[in-house]
Amino acid sequence: MRGNRVGAAVIAAVIAAGQPTPAVAAPPPGACRDTEPARPPVRELPWAQELLAPQRVWPHSTGAGVVVAVVDSGVDADHPQLRGGRVLRGQDFFLVGDLPGAFDCGSHGTAVASIIAAAPQEGIGFRGLAPGARVLPIRVTDRDGGRGAGIDPKVLAQGIRYAADQGADIINLSLSGTRDDKAVRDAVAYAQSKDVLIIAAVGNLQGEGSLPSYPAGYDGVIGVGAVDISGARLESSQIGPYVDIVAPGGGVLGATRVAGHTYWDGTSFAAPFVAATAALVRSAWPDLPADQVARRLLATAGPSRGGIGSLAYGAGTVNPYRAVTEGLVDSPPNVTAPVVIPRPDPGELRAAERWAVTRSRSHAWTLVVLIGTAVALAAALTVPRGRRRRWAPGAAHLPAARPVRDEPPEQLFLLDPPGR
């Protein structure tokens, strides 16, 4: 009961922290060519939140003290579930000038950020996995960031370096491309040198054949594939050695700019579930370096259809509760002592043999006595009758003859009667 009270108190505090504040993240004049309108809220509990059950892990960690950089289309900090200081100012590298990253002309980056850190809201089933974490929004595009081909690699590299310099603990890259760009590769290595864990979507081009994927394919980057509500890989989710883990990505709910929610498909929306889990781990285990956080995420992943090490599913499905609470050790398991079979006592063996012989003899004598008794009883019954008849044979009484039936008797067949 005490654990339930603690969990309820944590959830209540998280909800209270997400109460509405005045809007501050309207796009600058002229920044958006085609602004996406607000959408209505979705109140039902989404399947991904039901599956991963973030409320189970909140008594242990909410991601507090961790900064997750969302390098994307920006993040609308005015969404009711992202207000209250959850979204930092950030930086816009797409437009010229000193603009913040805390606005979004579309909703791609807002959806990604909400999966990570959206606060619980009364009457709304959707919530982020790590509502105690803060989001650093870095704007590198003005539209859907799912295809890295539309993003200038130099701008992307600037955004990654900026995130590392601003103290981000985790960088979420819900974008992918097929080209290994040196500027991006060097920026990833720079961030990793500052102990930043990088999570990247593996891409949605599987229908076009086996393709490389960057930045998911870079060393040390956790590549995330997408599964649907049945646990099956999304048909478009790419397959390759860069798939390290999978997460919900088919029909998952995310916030939209200004207000409301909508459903999204793709590895772009699987990646933030893993980034949020990493935030929970880094908050609960602040001394773990990035590479050990990555190892923990993979070691605690749940079973998937592909089995461990699959090119489609990686280590399995991300499991926030296990990632935070499970105790892992680096030392090898203790060697089990060999089983020693004790030598039997010769005296006990001789005694057991004597008892076996005695039991065998007693059984034999018992059988002889029973047979003798049966013979004596039979003789006692038959001898007097034989003497009375002077040992002449008795007459046999034949049973009365029964009429012959023309038809055989009725029968019940389990199968069809013969001949039918």
Automatic annotation (TrEMBL):
Residue span, Peptidase S8/S53 domain: 63-316
Transmembrane spans: 364-383
Membrane topology: Single-pass membrane protein
Keyword Cell cycle: no
Sorted UniProt keywords: Cell membrane, Hydrolase, Membrane, Protease, Serine protease, Signal, Transmembrane, Transmembrane helix
Example of a GO cellular component annotation carried by this entry: plasma membrane
Active-site residues annotated for this sequence: D72, H108, S268
Region listing for Disordered, in residue ranges: 400-420
Main location as per UniProt: membrane
Entries under InterPro entries matching the protein: Peptidase_S8/S53_dom (IPR000209), Peptidase_S8/S53_dom_sf (IPR036852), Peptidase_S8_Asp-AS (IPR023827), Peptidase_S8_His-AS (IPR022398), Peptidase_S8_Ser-AS (IPR023828), Peptidase_S8_subtilisin-like (IPR050131), Peptidase_S8_subtilisin-rel (IPR015500), T7SS_pept_S8A_mycosin (IPR023834)
MF GO annotations: serine-type endopeptidase activity
GO biological process, one term: proteolysis
Region forming the signal peptide: 1-25
Subcellular location: Cell membrane
Family assignment from sequence similarity: Belongs to the peptidase S8 family.
NCBIfam families xrefs: T7SS_mycosin
Protein name, UniProt field: Peptidase S8/S53 domain-containing protein
Organism name: Actinokineospora fastidiosa
